[in-house]
Amino acid sequence: MIRGVLFDLGGTLHTVSSPEGRDVAFARLLLERLGVEGARCVLFDDSLSACKAAKAAGMTVVGVYDNYFRETEPDMREICDQYIYGFGELL
Length: 91
What we know:
This protein is of the alpha/beta class. It has one domain (2-90): HAD superfamily/HAD-like (Rossmann fold, 3-Layer(aba) Sandwich). 30% of the residues lie in helices and 26% in strands. Strands 3-4-5 form a three-stranded parallel β-sheet, covered by helices on one side. It has a two-stranded antiparallel ribbon with strand order 1-2. 20% of the residues are buried.
């Protein structure tokens, strides 16, 4: 079971669960729950599958380095709109 937890700009917490995992249907369900188009969302994630799903749903994607997923860094750099090693790079 995969659970997505996100906040909108108004501070509302949204959760979505999926037994399928992080696929494009899951990403679209997150967007539906927020009531926005993919082009208005940015996903920050360290998982290649989550980043692929978010891109397929039309989101902007920022890949975040994680030592556990280090083997996927080349693919993450290719798929993501931006790739960071830490959130301090965004300041």
